[in-house]
Amino acid sequence: MLENSAGLTLLDPDHEVVVTGEEDHQDALRPWAPRDRPRRLAAELRFAPLRRGRHAGERGIEVLLGGRRVGELTHLMSVRYGPYVDDVLRRHGRPGAVALVRHGRRGLVEVELRLPDVEATPPAPLPAPMPPTPRPSGRRPAPHPGDPRPARSRRRTPALVGGGVLALLLVVGTLAGGAGDDGDAVPTVPVAAAPTTPPPRTTTPPPTTTPA
Known about the structure:
Distance between the termini: 171 Å
Low-confidence stretches: 183-195
Largest sheet: 7 strands, mixed
């Protein structure tokens, strides 16, 4: 276990990655400088704007030792290892990596990280939280603008159909009652035929005039 790895979630040390910008942070690196051979430490990784190159100002990954910035990854390495750092942060952890601190050729203290192999499968993202289930309410949901309005006559259809069936049953029952057996038939009275002989014609005599 590394001496300063408490509280850090170290990534797999499979691949060597160079840290840039150490010359601007020699004051923070000198307390960690080795005497004769490279020193293995635990460096913390954190998202921060890049300070070097044409991608300055964009999101990158900075390297910290003892809580102090000692350099940053290049834009390409920040893009490659961003999912690993983000995965640890989403799990409420502090991402870190094995760091190799040594003296460089120019007399400066340099840092080299050990990170997962870029060809390995990146960490699977965490599943998105499920949306809360809405509670059922007594109100009818408002219709969408594109939905057709329900016809009002649908509610009256069962009543109309029931009334028509009832009337049909009454008519059938009436007809069935009239066409029963002979014993139950209602007696009928024959209607007398009209006389064929015309009635006698009455002739009124003309009035008699008496001369004066």
